[in-house]
Design a protein that fits this description.
Layout (H helix, E strand, L loop, with lengths): L15 H9 L1 H4 L14 E6 L3 E11 L3 E5 L5 H15 L9
Antiparallel strand pairs: 1-2, 2-3
Length: 100
């Protein structure tokens, strides 16, 4: 399988500190079903959506207020990164998948 980078950029009115804290809060914008730690380099966590999709993520880089890097499958991330995450940063409420 070929490795592909996924990078995205969007602008919000909040400070870099506020945005960075929201980005690290993956349960707030992605899914409440995430299992495992998500806040320190080297942390691994799993995500599943019903019986349809399962993936394992690894946090590989944190540069405070600048950058977060995960090893991730990118095909489903667009709606989370471009929709739910900006909402969490801007309003304090994301649109993560709810617990079943």
């Amino acid at each position: 399988m070929k490795s592909k980078d996924y990078t995205t950029t969007f602008t919000v009115d909040q400070s870099p500190e506020e945005a960075f804290e929201a980005i690290k809060n993956v349960r707030g914008w992605w899914s409440e079903e995430i299992e495992g730690r998500t806040d320190k380099v080297g942390d691994e966590f799993t995500y599943h959506y019903k019986d349809v999709h399962t993936c394992r993520m690894k946090l590989v880089e944190l540069v405070p207020n600048q950058r977060v890097v995960w090893l991730v499958c990118s095909n489903a991330w667009g709606s989370y990164i471009k929709g739910s995450l900006p909402s969490l940063i801007s309003t304090g409420k994301g649109r993560p998948n709810q617990k079943e």
